[in-house]
Structure formats: structure tokens, C-alpha cells
Amino acid sequence: MTETKFRGRRLNLQEIFGVNKDSFRELLREVLQEVLEQEMTEAIGAEKGERSPGRLGYRSGYYGRALVTRVGKLELRIPQDRQGHFSTQIFERYQRSEKALVSALAEMYIQGVSTRKVKAITEELCGHAFSASAISAVNKTLDESLERFAKRPLEENYPYLVLDARYEKVREDGVIRSQAVQIAIGINDEGRRQVLAVELANRESQTSWRDVLLGLKSRGLKGVEFVVSDDHAGLKRAIAEVIPEAVWQRCYVHFLRNALDHLPRKAVDDCRQELRWLYDRRDLSEAQKDLTQWLERWGTRYPKLCEWVEENIGETFSFYRLPLQHHKHLKSTNMLERFNEEIKRRTRVARIFPNEAACLRLIRALAVETHEGWLEASRYLNMDLLKEHKKLRISLAA
Fold first, then answer.
1. pLDDT tens-digit profile of 38-70?
2. First and final CA of the chain: distance in angstroms?
3. Can you tell me the distance from the alpha carbon of 34 to that of 302, in angstroms, rounded to the nearest whole number?
């Protein structure tokens, strides 16, 4: 029975890798080696053997260094320059989340809370076994950098804030419990997304969310005008308490899911689809007009649903206060949900974390990766549209 389960786990790992592991490892090694060569070329201002008046230095051979990944250990040749100034960021940036995942898996084995299968999986993913002292050294360095990220000052305005939580299984005092991973994403005045907070709590509640928001405030969070989240009661109260000046948008995707609770199982799909179309209108007046027609059409057939919709749908129309170009990005928490899917893809390898620290370590490492990727990408929203929209609303009100 044990052998059957183990074989099934090995098949899952092959699905994660997607291709032959040895082939993928060699491909990844070649790609990273080329990245190192290009980094050196940019650093000294010249290709190999190139005669250039703008050259800043000269190559001086290589030294070997290993990079541990989930497809095994990669042996890389690190270029050197004569002055000894060249330094690559590839190890720190690539391995941050890898170290977190490796340490989570290895801790499961080291602390004696797992089986032979966990050790085998760790070696399968990482290419070698880990000692307790090695994991301790990795964690110390990693935790310090992640703590700096989590406590960094917030010196910009963040007009838009998106909040959501997901649950991970954590072993605590020998008992497996679900822990809420609370995440806050902000969009600054330049229209760029940033991961502002990743915190762990026993459960979602007004108290836990208030602690997250007060923590953001203490780090300098300001300028919040619009907050998107689901309809969690504790979260709503925390937003109203800590950021009362912000307009709250209830995620329309969650709202449509909640609508199923008020429909019979054999309900007509057209009813819910037409309700979904209300969120594609250009402005609030169009949406309200179509809502009236929707209520008239379905009120007799599904009175329970229509009564619930009429009472609650206003919370999902707040996004109509924003510029039209921002509607699709801020009428739901889909942006954060995609980040949660990436977390799920990585954490399902560990399945059950050996402790809270291991769980928070991996998810924060993933958050740093995502955060840095967003900063380097093109801006997410044109925030000039928000400024113009606010001016127009003020002039119309006057």
C-alpha cells in the first residue's frame, strides 16, 4: 500500500516538471549560463574578444558554483573580471523561493513529523539531502531578508488596495490546523502593483484583519481611496474601522458565486449570465437600468434570489466611480486570486507545513518574487485617468 502511494507521488512530480527531469535540468543550466555571460558583458561593456574604447574591464576566467533547484543541482561557471568587481544577482533572485520550498520540505523530515516518502521527495526535488545545520543556515539568511521586505516603510500613496486570504495546512503542537494567509496588494500613483503585506493568522476575523491594516498604517500606508475584497464580515468591519475614508468594492465574482445559494439547483443559466452582464456596462446609470429590467424578468420565477440581489448588489457597483479603463481590474479580486493560484501551485508540493515559520517563509518568498516582477514590468494602470476622473467629478458636483 505504501509503495503504491509513493509511485503515485513520483508521477505527480513528473507532472510538475512537465518534461524529462534531466533534459530540463540541462536546458535550465544552459539558459542560466547564458544569463551569466550577458551579465558580464553588460558589466564590462564588451563581448568576448571585442575591441571597444568603451570597455570598463577585462574577463579573467571562471570559478565553479552550484545552484540548487527543484530539478536538481546545477553546476555553473561564474565569470570573473580582473578587478574583482563583477557580481551576479542570479543566485539570490532565483533561489529565494527555492530555498523557502526546500527548507519547508526538509524541516518536515528533520523534525521527525514526516515519513520516508518526504525524504525521498525532498531528494527528488532538490538533488541531495539536507542536514539540520544546513537548513538552519539557509533559514537564518532567508528570514532576515524576508523580514526586511515585510517591515519596509511604505513611502508612496496607494490609491487602490486589494485584500484577500487563503488557507494553508500547518502542523502545530502535533495537530494539523488551517492557517489564514492574509495578503494585501496596493497600486501606487504610478499605476504599479506591489505586495504590501503577507501575514499569518489562526483565522480570518475583524481582529486579524485590523492588525494587518494597522500594521500597514504604521509602516506609512496613505492615500487609499478604493478597497476591493470579498464579503467577509470581519474584513468589512476592519476596513471601515481603519480606512473609513476609502470606498469599498465587494468582489463581483464572489457575489455571483454567493447568488447560487439563492437559486434552485435546476435554475436557468440565463438568469445568472444576465446578472453577470450588468458588470460590463459603461456607467452606473446603465447598470441600474438593466438591473431594473433583470428584476422584472426574473422576479416572479426566482423571488428569493431577486430580493437578495436587490438588497446587496449596490456593494458590487462601487467600481463605477472609477475611470472606465480601470473597471475590469478593480471590480473583483481576480488580480490577487491569480497570485493565490501561484501560491497554491508551489505550496501543494509541501502539502502540510511543519510549522508557521516554514509556511510564512515560503509564501513571503513567493511574494518577493512577484513584487519584483511587477516592479520591472510595464505599469498596470494609467493613474492619470484617475486624476482626470476626480477633477471631472469635482467640477460636475460644483
1. 778 888 888 877 777 778 888 888 888 877 665
2. 75
3. 62
Q: Which of 231, 274, 227, 238 is nearest to 255 (CA)?
A: 231
Residue 296: CA atoms inside 13 Å, Cβ hemisphere, count?
6
Which SS3 state, helix, strand or coil, does residue 42 take? Answer: helix
Q: Which of 18-27, 111-120, 148-157 has the lowest mean pLDDT?
A: 111-120
Is 80 exceeded by the pLDDT of residue 123? no
Pairing of strands 72-81, 160-172: unpaired
Local structure of 57: helix, strand or coil: coil
Phi first, then psi, for residue 272 (nearest 5°) are -75, -35
**Phi, psi (deg, nearest 5) at residue 350:** -80, -35
Indicate the pTM of the whole model.
0.71
Handedness of CA 86, 90, 93, 95 (dihedral sign): negative
DSSP string for residues in 301-361: T-HHHHHHHHHHGGGG-GGGGS-GGGHHHHSSSHHHHHHHHHHHHHHTTT-EESSHHHHHH
Predicted confidence (pLDDT) per residue in 347-395, tens digit: 887 788 888 988 898 888 889 889 988 988 889 999 999 999 988 888 8
Q: How far apart are CA 308 and CA 328, in angstroms?
A: 24
Burial annotation 383-395 (CB, 10 A radius, 16+ → b, else e): beebeebeeeeee
- 380 three-state secondary structure: coil
288 pLDDT exceeds 80?
A: yes
If DSSP codes are grouped into helix, strand and coil, which group holds residue 1? coil
H/E segment holding residue 389: helix 384-397
Give the pLDDT mean for 100-121: 48
Residue 60 phi, psi dihedral angles, 5° rounding: -145, 55
Give the separation between CA 71 and CA 78, rounded to whole angstroms.
20
Cell numbers given for 117: 516518502
Q: What mean pLDDT do residues 283-293 have? A: 96
